[in-house]
Every structure is written in structure tokens, then in C-alpha cells.
Amino acid sequence: MKRIFDIVASGLGLIVLSPLFLIIAVWIKLDSRGPVFYRQTRVGRYNKDFRIFKFRSMRVGSDKGSLVTIGGRDSRITRSGYFIRKFKLDELPQLINVVRGDMSLVGPRPEVRHYVEYWTAEQMHVLDVRPGITDPASIKFRNENKLMEQAEDPEKYYIEVIMQEKIRLYLEYVEKQGFWYDLGLIFQTFWVIVSKPQ
Questions:
Q1: d(CA 40, CA 116)
Q2: Residue 43 pairs with which residues in a beta bridge?
Q3: What would the mean pLDDT of 74-92 be, rounded to a whole number?
Q4: How confident is the prediction for the chain on average, in pLDDT?
Q5: Which of 69-73, 77-81, 83-87, 118-122 has the least mean pLDDT?
Q6: Cα(124)–Cα(116) distance, integer angstroms
């Protein structure tokens, strides 16, 4: 049932949102050099790598440095990128990943391999389910960049504090997941984005 819902909802989403996709794509191309989409390797279900789709919000080559983004005004973020990140519009292309079966609408956010290597054997159970576009941790840490900005060592703070709490919430989700629970998280995500933009 979850997979059927994912396919139908993400397929309709791609159709309905296609005009918005076009507007964002044109803005990104006019704003800075580089591709419209940003593709990054993430760790998916059963510990298998896949390439995630996002609208590019940073300057080309920015990911060759730190993997963490610090603050809403990170100098690597483009003008269009600042806006689409504020309203989480950069995440919309992940509907393509949902259709392809790499992701679900709701599930633990997919992490890069570099950070998954820090996980314990117990924490690896997060990978028993498909990663998602949203989940309880995404809602709780929607202002994650601002938290990182305040840390003396942002990467260490992410690994030792933020990531640990995220994984705790991911594991809770794995235990509680269900159609109605997922639906509630989708509506909660929309509400938070609209009512409390970053």
C-alpha cells in the first residue's frame, strides 16, 4: 500500500508541479553557471548507494569542501538557492527518486556514505526501509543549518549531537511507520514549511 501511494502521489506531484519545476529551472540557469539538478550519492535501503535528485542551490564544485552547510547565508549558496532552500523547494525533484523506487515520500532522510560509516550496527537498522523526502527528524531539524552555524566545530557537532538525535528518530520511525502515520507527517511537513519558513 505504501509503495502504491508513493507511485501515485509522486507521479501526480510531478505533473501538477511541472510549471513550478520549469520556473525554478529557468531561475537557476539565469542565476549561476551549472546544471539545474544536483546529483549526489546517498545511502539507501539495504545499504545500497543511489543518486539523489535536488535542484542545485549552491555554486558548482561547492561540495568538494565541507559536506555540511553552515547557516542560511553560506557563501556557497546562490541567490536562487537561498530562496528554494528556505521553502524546501530544492527537495522537490526527489519525487523522481520516489517514482524510481530509490526513496519513499516518508522515511529516514538518506545520508552520505561518509557519515553512515560512523553508524553502529544497531543504527544500521535505519537502512531496513526506503529513505524518504520527509520524516520526524526533518521536521525537528528543519533549522539545522542555523544550529551548525553556532557550533565551534560544525562537523563534529553534526556527528556527535545532531546525527545521533536524527538516528534515534529514524529508528523510532522504522518501528512506528504506517500509512496513516506517514500521511500525518506529510501534512505536518507542509504546515511547518508554510507557517514557519527558515
A1: 15
A2: 49, 111
A3: 90
A4: 92
A5: 69-73
A6: 8
Beta bridge partners of residue 58, listed in sequence order:
77
What separation in angstroms does the CA of 10 have from each of 16, 32, 56?
A: 10, 28, 20
Residues in the chain: 198
C-alpha distances in angstroms, 121 versus 40, 116, 124? 24, 11, 5
CB 104 within 8 A of CB 152: no
Single-letter amino acid, residue 138? S
**What CA–CA distance (Å, rounded) separates 92 from 9?**
13
Taken in order 105, 131, 36, 194, is the CA torsion positive or negative?
positive
Whose CA is closest to 111, among 63, 44, 61? 44
The whole-angstrom separation of Cα 118 and Cα 185 is: 27
CA separation, residue 77 to residues 32, 70, 175, 198 (Å): 10, 10, 36, 15
- From the CB of residue 56, how many other CB atoms can be counted at a distance below 10 Å? 25
pTM attached to this predicted model: 0.90
Contact 43, 111 (CB under 8 A): yes
How many whole angstroms separate alpha carbon 18 and alpha carbon 105?
Answer: 18
> Do 43 and 116 form a contact (C-beta atoms < 8 A)?
yes
- On the question of pLDDT at 99 being above 80, the answer is yes
